[in-house]
């Protein structure tokens, strides 16, 4: 079931032949949208951008992206010059907002076929990454003094949460390995929430914080391109621009998950499901998808955490949109086992 929030394009959205669980019309502040829908279960939200108060201020869209799961939102753009400018569209992509269009037929398509970074990469102005300025605010728009300069400076930053779905699915080790692999091409840091297992990795560049302090930590490190957040089993996702969900596909782990919550996979619909520490082959993955009625985003096998690089993680990171990783391949003649460094 889907949600429609409309304003200027109410009549156009009324022509959509989709299952609707809730429909609102008018202009709403970001805080009001977050309050009404943060705990409301829906498949997709079709959001008329003119229904967002002060929508031409890119910081407003950033605030929305930080507090809502944008992979479930289809943004119907208006025909204004600001919203359709290359800079505005590039900033949407930088925030991990991939499902946007001005075409009602495209809205219908995106409900069942959400975009990936590859589909919107042409809008991404990589030369602007790290130097985004707030877009000009129109005469009718009002500036929100509660939005700090830190929010504006974070427009190009990706905050990626790594969260366990099955118990202890490996979020800490995977976060550490991804951070190591990204560091060759991106300005990246990693932080663990609530637990402090990072201390056992003997890496002083890894951080620790609490759930309550996480938003402040992100704001204070907004000069980085990427923040990887180890959410462990229960960390909050509200401050993330995107989240990947880890499942260790062992029989005991899966049975425990289903006994705890029989709707677990229903809740993961349209999420980025990662099979981690997996021994499944391609056919096994297809069987898993069929039985769980879910879609696997990526299948990561057991990895040797002592190695410097992993080809599987290169593929995973490129799929997430970190295209510079393609330039990070090992030079010919590198040692296979890295015994002597």
Structural category is: alpha/beta
Helix-residue proportion: 25-40%
How is the main sheet built? 7 strands, parallel
SS strand fraction: 15-25%
Extended strand count: 12
**What is the CA-atom radius of gyration, in angstroms?**
20 Å
Q: CA-to-CA gap between the ends? A: 55 Å
Structure in words:
With 341 residues, this protein is an alpha/beta fold. 30% of the residues lie in helices and 19% in strands. The protein contains 13 helices and 12 strands. It has helices at residues 10-13, 30-37, 58-67, 86-94, 104-112, 117-120, 149-153, 171-182, 214-220, 251-260, 264-267, 282-292, 311-319; strands spanning 2-6, 20-25, 45-48, 73-76, 100-101, 158-164, 188-193, 206-209, 226-232, 242-247, 272-278, 296-301. A 7-stranded parallel beta sheet has the order 8-7-9-6-10-11-12, sandwiched between helices. A 5-stranded parallel beta sheet has the order 2-1-3-4-5, covered by helices on one side. Helix 3 (58-67) links the parallel strand 3 and strand 4. Helix 2 (30-37) packs parallel to helix 3 (58-67). Residues 128-155 and 330-341 have low confidence and may be disordered.
Keywords:
single chain, 341 residues, alpha/beta, seven-stranded parallel beta sheet, five-stranded parallel beta sheet, globular, disordered C terminus
Please outline the helices and strands.
Layout: E1 2-6, H1 10-13, E2 20-25, H2 30-37, E3 45-48, H3 58-67, E4 73-76, H4 86-94, E5 100-101, H5 104-112, H6 117-120, H7 149-153, E6 158-164, H8 171-182, E7 188-193, E8 206-209, H9 214-220, E9 226-232, E10 242-247, H10 251-260, H11 264-267, E11 272-278, H12 282-292, E12 296-301, H13 311-319
Parallel strand pairs: 1-2, 1-3, 3-4, 4-5, 6-9, 6-10, 7-8, 7-9, 10-11, 11-12
């Amino acid at each position: 079931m889907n949600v429609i929030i409309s304003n200027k394009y109410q009549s156009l959205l009324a022509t959509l032949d989709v299952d609707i669980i809730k429909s609102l019309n008018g202009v709403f502040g970001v805080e009001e949208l977050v309050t009404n829908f943060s705990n409301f279960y829906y498949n997709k939200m079709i959001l008329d951008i003119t229904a967002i108060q002060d929508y031409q201020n890119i910081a407003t869209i950033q605030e929305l992206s930080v507090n809502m799961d944008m992979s479930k939102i289809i943004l119907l753009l208006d025909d204004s010059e600001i919203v359709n400018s290359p800079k505005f569209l590039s900033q949407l992509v930088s925030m991990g907002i991939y499902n946007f269009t001005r075409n009602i037929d495209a809205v219908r398509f995106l409900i069942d076929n959400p975009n990936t970074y590859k589909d919107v990469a042409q809008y991404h102005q990589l030369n602007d990454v790290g130097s985004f300025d707030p877009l000009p605010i129109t005469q009718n728009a009002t500036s929100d003094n509660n939005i700090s300069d830190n929010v504006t400076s974070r427009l190009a930053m990706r905050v990626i949460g790594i969260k366990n779905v099955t118990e202890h699915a490996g979020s800490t080790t995977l976060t550490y390995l991804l951070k190591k692999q990204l560091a060759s091409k991106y300005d990246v840091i990693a932080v663990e929430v609530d637990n402090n297992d990072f201390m056992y990795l003997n890496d002083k560049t890894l951080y620790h914080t609490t759930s309550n302090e996480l938003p402040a930590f992100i704001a204070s490190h907004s000069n980085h391109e990427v923040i990887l957040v180890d959410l462990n089993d229960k960390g909050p996702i509200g401050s993330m621009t995107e989240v990947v969900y880890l499942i260790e596909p062992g029989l005991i782990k899966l049975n425990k998950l289903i006994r705890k919550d029989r709707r677990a996979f229903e809740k993961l619909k349209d999420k980025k499901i990662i099979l981690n520490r997996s021994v499944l082959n391609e056919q096994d993955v297809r069987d898993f998808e069929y039985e769980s009625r879910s879609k696997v985003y990526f299948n990561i096998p057991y990895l040797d955490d002592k190695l410097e690089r992993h080809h599987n993680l290169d593929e995973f990171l490129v799929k997430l949109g970190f295209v510079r990783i393609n330039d990070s391949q090992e030079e010919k003649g590198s040692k296979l086992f890295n015994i002597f460094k």
